[in-house]
Amino acid sequence: MSIDIVHPALSDYLLDHATPADEVLRDLAEETRRLLPDNARMQISHDQGTLLTLLVKLTGTLHAVEVGTFTGYSSICIARGLAPGGRLLACDVSEEWTGTARRYWERAGVADRIDLRIAPAAETLRALPREEYLDFAFIDADKVGYPVYYEELLTRLRPGGVIVLDNVLRGGRVLDPAARDEPDLVIRELNDAITADERVESVLLPVRDGVTVVRKR
Ligand SMILES: C[S@@+](CC[C@H](N)C(=O)[O-])C[C@H]1O[C@@H](n2cnc3c(N)ncnc32)[C@H](O)[C@@H]1O
């Protein structure tokens, strides 16, 4: 089962009505498609990137974390929204993919604001101080890890801080009881758990493959 979350014609219209990507982001999207055709779909779309930049700005973020960096599109969008002196901790397991990210961070002029940790993200997050100091986090890595990433990040999020989770509709498979793959089951359960979580207020937006925005009370 795979549903168009948004009609394809409207999808193009939405892309055309976000603040346009600059040359760096356009080149990064093009290079990722050209060099990594089998994986390029993992990259966030430009309207998602614009949403991230806006949310980072709206929260006045000094301390941001990203789980799942790939070739760097979302990290550039987050880094560009940081308040002066702000920093982004980027978590990934791939030296190869994040090598591209590092090149584009330089080009975008944000390399000095980003710390990259190459390790399973659960380890990286568990090693962070257990204090409520994070302003913003973006989760876009292995789906089975999402519940751990959500808990570790929420524990460290300040009241009023925001967590954004990508791919929470799983191509519409959250609706399909026959979809029994572990990532589908984990995300369906997490979506229900977040809705019932009294520590937060949240909304699931039909942006691309579904984006949940969570605010800690
Ligand atoms: C969907 S891609 C991220 C796309 C990225 N946000 C962007 O805008 O291009 C998922 C990334 O998660 C990374 N990843 C997978 N398992 C991971 C883990 N256990 N810890 C940290 N990163 C992981 C992959 O190496 C991959 O780069």
UniProtKB/TrEMBL annotation:
SUPFAM superfamilies according to UniProt: S-adenosyl-L-methionine-dependent methyltransferases
Gene Ontology terms describing biological process: methylation
GO molecular function, one term: methyltransferase activity
EC code(s) of this entry: 2.1.1.-
Keyword field: Methyltransferase, S-adenosyl-L-methionine, Transferase
PROSITE patterns recorded: SAM_OMT_I
Protein name, per record: O-methyltransferase
Organism of origin: Streptomyces carpaticus
